[in-house]
Amino acid sequence: MNHQHQENNSVPNFWSTRYAIGLIVLGGIAAYFLLTEHLAHVIGALPYLFLLACPLMHIFMHGGHGHHHHQQKNPDTSDNKKSREPGDPS
Question: Which residue ranges does the record annotate as region Disordered (predicted)?
Fold first, then answer.
């Protein structure tokens, strides 16, 4: 049997090394403790965040109320018709 091995002289991907796995584990532990220790502060501020979201949504989400719509005017509509008198050729 002939096995051909490719020489791979490139640097290994960082996320596949044991240092990256350790970094991910330490980051997960840090995120867990930050969440458990500061959850009371976040829950205490949650009603104020909802109240703050109301005016922000009012400001940024009012694009669809038709303030900037453009209507094509049909020349046959009553707005564009001149009042004609009987016998007027125009």
Answer: 64-90
What is the pLDDT at residue 31? 94
Side-chain-side CA neighbours of 10 within 13 Å: the count stands at 5
Ranges of beta strands (E only) in 11-89 are none
Residue located via tokens 């970094």: 23
Residues 6+ positions from 27 with CB-CB distance below 8 Å: none
Cα–Cα dist 53/47, whole Å: 10
Task: Look at the block and give the residue holding tokens 């564009």.
Answer: 80
Q: Cα separation of 14 and 23, whole Å? A: 11
> For residue 90, what are its two tokens?
């125009």
Give the integer Cα–Cα distance in Å for 7 and 89: 93
